[in-house]
Specification:
C8orf32 fold; four-stranded antiparallel β-sheet; 6 strands; 269 residues; two-stranded parallel sheet; 60% helix; 2 domains; alpha+beta; 12 helices
Length: 269
């Protein structure tokens, strides 16, 4: 099992950090192929944009290259498929979700010299473009379209209700360790939905290297252990959550679960 620490991700491009994360979860991740493919596409982009001299027009040409010529697109048919969160699969399928597509946009764009950063807006990952002495631009990585602050607020209203406000903190650049932490949670959620419990357990173990005593992560690990027919370990994790979060509504439900599982264990022995 890899031990992943914040400083590892600070030193890497986001897509490179995602590959480290992907391999820690699924050792068969095609890391070498993905790195070679990213390098190949970067060289192709450099050649394609060589005659574009105006910075903003060059950036728009880059977006056309990424979404139209290369064919990257948001996966509208299977948004929650775990493949959309593994960089090698995204490069292979040319489909992804905002954070995976956004990480590739950042990888290519930053190497090409564009002033772009990533931000974890409450509704999704967004790419922020900061041209000198000009208004900030925002790109939706899912489709490569520019979005206004008005649109961002509309996204917020759709998620949080009609009184949601576009707070300055929502528009701040997010550091890589924070993005990777959320990416890990996203992958775990997808794997649980797909009932791929062994890989989901790897996600939980990785998350616990960052926060060893997180009761919610330990509760989730208990659920995974239960699905993997490891009842004693599940009971231990459930009990930890109950002890640490007695006021949480889930604690009462888990108490019933623990009692039922304990009776089963006694009967079996």
């Amino acid at each position: 099992m890899y031990e992943l620490f914040d400083e590892d991700f600070d030193a890497l491009e986001l897509a490179e950090g995602a590959l480290v994360l992907n391999q820690a979860i699924a050792p068969d991740t095609q890391v070498d192929w993905a790195k070679a493919e990213m390098q190949r596409l970067l060289q192709e982009a450099e050649l394609s944009l060589v005659h574009e001299t105006h910075p903003q027009q060059r950036f728009e040409a880059f977006l056309r290259l990424f979404y139209h010529q290369w064919g990257f697109q948001g996966d509208k048919d299977a948004y929650f498929d775990s493949s959309n969160a593994f960089i090698d699969k995204v490069l292979e399928r040319r489909k992804g979700i905002p954070v995976s597509l956004g990480s590739l946009l950042l990888y290519f764009g930053r190497h090409l010299g564009f002033p772009i950063e990533g931000m974890t807006f409450p509704t999704q990952f967004v790419v922020k473009v900061c041209w000198p002495d000009q208004a900030v631009q925002y790109v939706n990585p899912f489709n490569g379209e520019f979005v206004s602050e008005h649109t961002l607020r509309a996204w917020l209203v759709g998620q949080k209700g009609p009184f949601a406000q576009l707070k300055p903190d929502y528009l701040k650049v997010t550091d890589h360790p924070t993005v990777i932490g959320r990416w890990l949670a996203l992958i775990k959620s997808a794997l649980l939905r797909e009932e791929r419990y062994a890989l989901a357990l790897r996600c939980t173990d990785l998350a616990l290297t960052f926060a060893p005593d997180d009761p919610y992560e330990i509760r989730d690990r208990g659920f995974i252990y239960q699905q993997l027919d490891c009842p004693q370990m599940a009971l231990s994790d459930y009990q930890y959550f109950i002890d640490q979060c007695p006021e949480d509504p889930a604690a009462e439900l888990l108490k019933n679960q623990v009692r039922a599982m304990s009776k089963t264990q006694v009967t079996l022995h």
